[in-house]
Every structure is written in C-alpha cells, then in structure tokens.
Amino acid sequence: MHNPYQTPASSTADITLPTRKRPLSVWLLLLILGATLIFHAIGTVAFLRFIVSYQPQEHIRVVEGIAARLGILALGGAILLGVLRRRQWGRWLAVLAMGALTVALFFIPDTAQYANETQRSGGFVGRTILSPALMVWWIYAFGFSSKARRYFGN
Questions:
Q1: Fewest C-beta atoms under 10 Å: which of 47, 48, 80, 121?
Q2: Rounded CA gap, 49 and 146, in Å?
Q3: What phi-psi label fits residue 153: left (phi over 0), alpha (psi between -120 and 50 degrees) or beta?
Q4: Is 86 left (phi over 0), alpha (psi -120 to 50) or beta?
Q5: In sequence order, what DSSP letters do the residues of 95-144 get, joined into one string?
C-alpha cells in the first residue's frame, strides 16, 4: 500500500560534514595531559612494585595510596577521552581541572634559591602574575573561545 504523505526517496548520497580541526589549546591540553598520565602510570607501577617488594605494615594507608593513584589515572583518562571525542562533559571536566591547577599555583611553596632581591621579585611576578594569567588565557581558549565552541559542537 502506498502512503501519499511519505516524502519521495532521494537519490543523493549521505552528506558528511567535515570534522572540525582541533584548536591549539586542545592540542596543548592533550599533549600535556597525555604525558602527565604516562608519567603518573609509571609512578603508580613503581609504587605497586615497592608495595609488593617491601609489604608495609600499614595496610589502610597502602590501600588509600593505591586508590588515590588509580583515581587520578581514571579521572585523567576520562578527561583525555572526553576531549578527544569532543564531549561536553570532557570539556567541562578539563576546564575544572585546569582551574584547580591555576588555584593550586598559589599554594605551592617557593623553594627556589635566588642570588639577589631582583631575581626574587622576578620569581614572585612569574609565580603570582604571569603563570596564572597564562593559565586563565589557556582556560578561556580551551573552554570558551569561538574555536573551542565550534570544536565541541556548541
């Protein structure tokens, strides 16, 4: 039976949209996060080898350490996959993590040895003004710029 309200079959092939290029801020995040996850995974394996070799007496602290390391790896891997697959939750998790790192910059103690007060003031400016300003720019470019909105499909 023929449906008179059905649209006629089209002979055109399916049109695929070209994929949007990744912005530089996304490439930087993927590179830095990927390298950090690799080094953290190596550190976790070394920690597990240490645990197996020396069998410490405080089992609760060992379980806490393993859980924390695996949790960081899982969160970083989720962010990496979310950004690679252009998911909104990956974008917002990455923005949240980058914001947390920016705030953490203010709580890291300065352990550098300076020869004079000029170098000390330069280190202070770099730590309290330049580094956070660059992080804020990166967060904007990654999460809120027009290129980022296009990349993540907003």
A1: 121
A2: 46
A3: left
A4: left
A5: HHHHHHHHHHTTTS------SSHHHHHHHHHIIIIIHHHHHHHHHHHHHT
Q: Quote helix, strand, coil % in the chain, to nearest 5.
A: 70, 0, 30
105 is written with which tokens?
């910059």
Give the C-alpha separation, 154 to 147, whole Å. 10
**Residue in 115, 25, 130, 37 with CA at minimum distance from that of residue 75:** 37
Q: Name the residue type at position 67.
A: A
CA–CA distances in Å: residue 95 to residues 88, 99, 127, 138, 143? 11, 6, 20, 9, 6
Each residue of 78-97: pLDDT tens digit? 999 999 999 999 999 999 99
Domain ranges (residues) in the chain? 24-151
The answer to whether the beta carbons of residues 151 and 23 sit under 8 Å apart is yes
pTM (whole model) above 0.90: no
With contact defined as beta carbons under 8 Å apart, do 115 and 67 qualify? no
